[in-house]
Amino acid sequence: MRDTGVVIAGVGLSECGRVDGMTPFALHQQAASRALADAGLSHADVDGFASTGLGVLAPVELAEYLGLRPTWVDSTGVGGSAWEVMLEHAVDAVRAGTAHNVLLVYAATARADLKNRLRTANLQLSSRGPSAFDVPFGHTLIAKYAMVARRHMHEFGTTIEQLANIAVDTRYNAGLNPDAFYRDAITVEDVAAATMVADPFTKLHCCIRSDGGGAVLVTSAERGRDLPSRPVRVLSCASASGTTTMSQWDDLTVSPAAASGALAFRRADITPADVDVCQFYDSFTSTVLLTFEALGFCERGEAGAFLEGGTMRVGGALPTNTDGGGLSACHPGMRGIFLLVEAVRQLREQAGARQVAGAKVACVNGTGGWFSSASTSLLAV
User: Fold this and answer.
1) Which residues pair with 8 in a beta bridge?
2) Rg over CA atoms, the chain
3) What is the pLDDT of residues 5-28, one digit of tens each?
């Protein structure tokens, strides 16, 4: 097992769920302050800053709001996988000595926006460039993920019940997390009976809308040894770009995580068999399905069967999305930062009732756009 010599020394979450009384800026500040306190560092210690998704000048505006004056910044915008990509960039910066303490932070008020009738579910990510060829046909983001599910069902015999099982097991984990937005148990029948959104997806196949934010503090292993919280080693990171238009996707059943995952496991010199806990982007049930296959936890076309029998549950064969994921716990628009926070808490044995016993290695995978990007991070203690 190899590592990068870089660690995650602090993590923090803002208030999550429905937070009507706080702006996105305030949620960023709350999450960042909690991550710094967890790391035992002050704002003055931060010389690297990474964020995206809030305005054109996100890292500049946010750094100003947070009272930071970084000399290294990143605002990579690749959708929900951005924070795994930016973790890779932060690792490179710390190793090169161009930054010493890098803060990654994200927050949004998607739930409050819904209350204020700022609905975005049916909007395109883009209508310019290559995307212009998709827009006239009404290929919304949700519809694209649903078409992925349909193709997998057609090609491999995956059933809608197997896809629904992903939502059921994720809700089971949410029931162990007092901070999850939805905690009541659901069944496969409940998933089938929910409101249809985009065939074959009902509402319970889709991520929730919530408010909330998260932050991660990255530093060197040498520095991390002197800080109060247990440092979590970054074994490796890898990223891959996919497509934005359906006509350019070679195979609708293969996530770009197939490329990022292979690189990450090779760089860390471990295999999926070494992983104890997973945190995968779960914008929709099909996202999770393709991710397991892409990363090599099962063969292509076999994820439906592989995930039967409580595989993803805390206490199951491969606990995944242990906080309840984007399907039940928290999804403010882009969820990549929350995957890293939960992975760190699991490896530090700070997850309470949802703790995975003996967790030493975590696999984190972010997915952006609609399988437009993927980034895989392997973490360990």
Assistant:
1) 218, 232
2) 19
3) 999 999 999 988 888 889 999 999
In this structure, are residues 370 and 284 in contact, taking their beta carbons and an 8 Å threshold?
Answer: no
Dist CA 245 CA 135 (whole Å)? 9
Q: How do the domains of the chain map onto residue ranges?
A: 6-114+207-380
- Using DSSP's 3-state secondary structure scheme, residue 285 falls into helix
Q: Please tell me the CATH code under which domain 6-114+207-380 is placed.
A: 3.40.47.10
CB 330 within 8 A of CB 181: yes
- Structure confidence at residue 119 as a pLDDT band (50, 70, 90): very low
Cα gap 82→309, rounded to integer Å = 32
Nearest to 62 by CA among 105, 19, 101: 105
CA dihedral 377, 334, 17, 315 (to 10 degrees): -30
* The predicted structure's pLDDT at residue 125: 58
Rounded Cα distance, 48 and 63, in Å: 10
Where does residue 13 rank: exposed (0-12), middle (13-18), buried (19+ CB within 10 A)? buried
Token pair of 371 as six digits: 């399988």
Coil, strand, or helix at residue 71?
coil
Cα of 291 vs its chain's centroid, Å: 12
Q: Is residue 63 within 8 Å of 49, Cβ to Cβ? A: yes
